[in-house]
Design brief:
Largest sheet: 4 strands, parallel
Number of helices: 4
Shape: globular
Structural class: alpha/beta
Radius of gyration: 14 Å
Distance between the termini: 27 Å
């Protein structure tokens, strides 16, 4: 359960293998323990997209040990902000939650060259989110 001092953010995409993994990794990396971070997929893949792992590695963040997780109503209920990335109606809706929908290209089936600009856009959005939440970015 999050407290007023520690906002809780859930990132949701269909497979939890690309966009939501990158967003969660950036938020954890930049926000540290000042933000509770979760990610999940409405139809999770078996593994994180290797091109996504490579692109994040280039940014100095190792997500090779991450595994896609299934979206649960508990995860949504425990989060202050729910950020969806292309999961449409598959994402459960709860009144009183703050929902943001980030329209981002799906890195599925793409090589690392196609993933880099998606990664960079996600990083910029995470920095903006941290600013909105009043969380200082780590150096």
């Amino acid at each position: 359960m999050s407290t007023a001092e520690t906002p809780s953010v859930l990132f949701v995409c269909v497979h939890n293998a690309g966009r939501s993994q990158m967003a969660a990794a950036f938020l954890t990396h930049l926000g540290g323990d000042r933000v509770d971070v979760r990610s999940a997929g409405s139809a999770p893949a078996d593994t994180v997209n290797p091109a996504v792992v490579e692109a994040m590695g280039e940014a100095g963040i190792d997500i090779s040990a991450e595994t896609p997780k299934v979206l649960t109503t508990e995860a949504v209920q425990a989060s202050d902000v729910v950020i969806t990335m292309g999961c449409g109606d598959a994402c459960p809706y709860f009144p009183g939650k703050r929902y943001l929908d980030w329209t981002l290209d799906d890195p599925a089936g793409q090589g690392v060259d196609a993933v880099r600009p998606i990664r960079d856009e996600i990083e910029q959005r995470i920095r903006g989110l941290l600013d909105e939440l009043g969380v200082d970015v780590r150096g």
